[in-house]
Amino acid sequence: MAEKQDERHGLSDLQNNSYNFLELKELRRQAYVDALMATRSGKTIVGYFGADVPELMIHQYGALAAPIMGLDGHVFQFDDENSTLDRYCDVIRSTLVYLQKDKCPLQHAAKAYVIGGSCSLMYEAINKATEKPVFYYSDNDHALAKWLVELLGSDQMTSQMNDISQIFSEISRRLNDLKKANISGYNLWLLNTYISYVLDPVKRIELLDEVTQSCELEPKFQERRSILAVCPAGIGEKIAKVEFNPDYQISPHLQEEYIADYGYEKCFFSAQCRFDYS
């Protein structure tokens, strides 16, 4: 079934790859359960939005980091404030409706939120919609560290900061190695998107090792085409339907002064091609 879907996208992997990447989507649903169990055991969840947010720091200070971005338009059926939210791009609108209607377990489990400085509109919208603490991360690690200490309490600061840093370095190394593997750009997007929903960083390494064992390095993928996309987690499926050459990799677009390859309708970032969640 997975192979047929990849072929429809024009992105079938080499036959030596046996991993079913579509199953990675289940990691998001599993994260709902993991977040609930974590909070029941006394762990703190900090929700975040934006590729510029240093997820590592959240873990270093004793919390678990969970993505809170709305990835779909299914939730729009519950939007009874359409006239108010319609001015936003679908990423903000989806995230807000999930938050306002309390339909995202990760948002619900989060004690607070960190919003990346690449989207001030998301910060303003979330800050108005919740009574939970919201931190606007503008590339100031010192300010974030101070906020995390105040949020979590000094007694929650982990003594294993260096170990956690090493774990995240290993995650990055494995993800970079897999860019050279015999997997399509679509499946690479699935991996990069949904691995963030594995709340335990150690389990991410285990997952990446499992994926790596099913793949082979392929010289033709040593240099992938770089595609810049605004909030790629929400439009990777649509990008896959128009990118028929499998040698690409999608990177998050964070600089407003440049034009992205793909973006969203009503987004302030310029993009050559725009999508929505319809």
How much of the polypeptide forms β-strand, as a percent range?
A: 5-15%
Strand arrangement, largest sheet?
Answer: 2-1-3-4
Main beta sheet strand tally, sense and closure = 4 strands, parallel
Please state the structural category: alpha/beta
Helix tally equals 12
Shape: globular
Mean pLDDT: 90
Which architecture of the domain at 43-156 per CATH? 3-Layer(aba) Sandwich
CATH class (first level) name of the domain at 43-156:
Alpha Beta
Number of strands: 8
Counting copies of identical and different chains, the oligomeric state is single chain
Order of helices and strands: HHEHEHHHEHEHHHHEHEEE
Q: Indicate the low-confidence ranges by residue numbers.
A: 1-11
Brief descriptors of the model:
two-stranded parallel ribbon, four-stranded parallel sheet, 278 residues, disordered N terminus, 14% strand, alpha/beta, globular, Rossmann fold
How are the elements arranged and paired?
Layout: H1 2-8, H2 26-40, E1 45-49, H3 55-60, E2 64-67, H4 82-85, H5 90-100, H6 105-109, E3 110-116, H7 120-129, E4 134-137, H8 141-152, H9 161-178, H10 185-194, H11 201-213, E5 225-229, H12 236-242, E6 248-252, E7 260-264, E8 271-275
Parallel strand pairs: 1-2, 1-3, 3-4, 5-6, 7-8
Helix pairs in contact: 5-7, 9-11, 10-12
